[in-house]
Amino acid sequence: MPRSENQKLKLFRLLEIFWIYTDENHGLTTPEIISKLESYEILVERKTVYADINELNKLGGFKIKKKKKGVNTYYYLTNKILSISQLKILVDASQAFKFIPEDTSEKLIKKLSLFSSKYESDGLKHQVRLRGRIKTNNHVVLEVIDTLNEAITKKKIVRFKYYKWVYEDNKIQLKERHENFLYSISPRALVYNDENYYFIGIDETINKEKFFRVDKMKDIELVENERMSSPGKTDTYDIVGCVNSNFDMYAAKKENVKIEFKKDVLGVIIDRFGTDIRMMDKGDGWYGTTLMNVGVSNTFFGWFFIIGMSAKIISPLHVKEKYKEYLLEQLKNY
After folding, report:
1. What pLDDT, on a 0 to 100 scale, did the predictor assign at position 278?
2. 191 & 227 share domain
3. Is 216 in the same domain as 162?
4. How many beta carbons lie within 10 A of that of residue 209, not counting itself?
5. In this structure, what are the phi and psi dihedrals at residue 258, rounded to the nearest 5 degrees?
6. Does 65 share its domain with 50?
7. Domain limits at 120?
8. Centroid of chain to Cα 175
9. 92, 125, 158: which is the final residue of a domain?
């Protein structure tokens, strides 16, 4: 490329240099900046560097600052798109999410590192190591998520195959839940709950709300020529209420359940139901409350059992009796 063409890219290359080689803890001197520009066959003088830095600062969104260390002045880029703390959170999430395959997590981390300097990037790549963590082996999961987001935005029905874990041919593998069957679902929301990513929608064939693990969905397609039965409900869908009432995405009849519990498990109750629950002091270190719209199922009973002797169901009576039956069924296993 002729030198004149390289000169046209001077501001772009200068921003690239600041992006890669500087951060809050690492700066470049003017001679170092000139040297790096020369590696792109761009020749500048010292006063030109100062003028170009001023031009970059006028662009908005970026801020190149300077600080003195001894006799040298160092320039560095601030106000990057994502701060290092935000990047660390995203890297942690990418590694921790079970629904993202391990190799996909590594690719995401490499892409996220592009938002940082080379010094911060090295730290990000070595920040989290969860080798051996249970991860999905469904390598189309990101494509599934893209299609689901598009369906929610466009209010379009999606069709897909749904899989389950089976043990066949001496190995654990995913197999179609119903062979050659395509679910036809009107989308409502995507939610992350209890370390899994779920797709919530309405089964158009029976007009019933259903929940699907995203990492168990494959062969998904957007249905362009069919309309949802109630597209407006997607915009007004109560995601938080759905998650709180269904306990790990298992559908069940909703009930208002009155309970009493010891103060030592107050944190457990609040972690699950939030701070909006109405409390009653029962004395002797016991409290009472009513859990609203709980999906009463074995999933709920399993969670309640974890609390142990520090809580009890008061009403409704039929829920109390069902919990007793659940406990007796568990005892039969021993």
Report:
1. 86
2. yes
3. yes
4. 15
5. -90, 130
6. yes
7. 84-125
8. 26
9. 125
Instruction: Quickly count: other Cβ atoms within 10 Å of residue 213's Cβ.
Output: 19
Token representation of residue 123: 């730290």
For residue range 297-308, list pLDDT tens digits in order.
888 898 899 888
CA distance 154 to 147: 10
Helix axes 118-125, 84-96, angle to 10 degrees: 30
User: How many domains are there within the chain?
Assistant: 4
- The pLDDT tens digits of the residues spanning 88-108 come to 878 877 777 777 777 888 888
Q: What is the 3-state secondary structure (H, E, C) of the chain?
A: CCHHHHHHCHHHHHHHHHHHHCECCECECHHHHHHHHHCCCCCCCHHHHHHHHHHHHHCCCCEEEEEEECCEEEEEEECCCCCHHHHHHHHHHHHHCCCCCHHHHHHHHHHHHCCCCHHHHHHHHCCCCCCCCCCCCCCCHHHHHHHHHHHHHHCEEEEEEEEEEEEECCEEEEEECCCCCCEEEEEEEEEEECCEEEEEEEECCCCEEEEEEHHHEEEEEEEEEEECCCHHHHCCCCHHHHHHHHCCCCCCCEEEEEEEEEHHHHHHHHHHHCCCCCCEEEECCEEEEEEEEEECCHHHHHHHHHHHHHEEEEECHHHHHHHHHHHHHHHCCC
Contact 144, 159 (CB under 8 A): no
Place of tokens 């039969």: 332
* CA–CA separation, 138 and 150 (whole Å): 20
The pTM is what?
Answer: 0.58
Token representation of residue 115: 């938002």
Q: How many CB atoms lie within 10 A of CB 95?
A: 20
Say how many C-beta atoms besides its own lie within 10 A of residue 302's C-beta: 13
CA 171/CA 3 separation, integer angstroms: 61
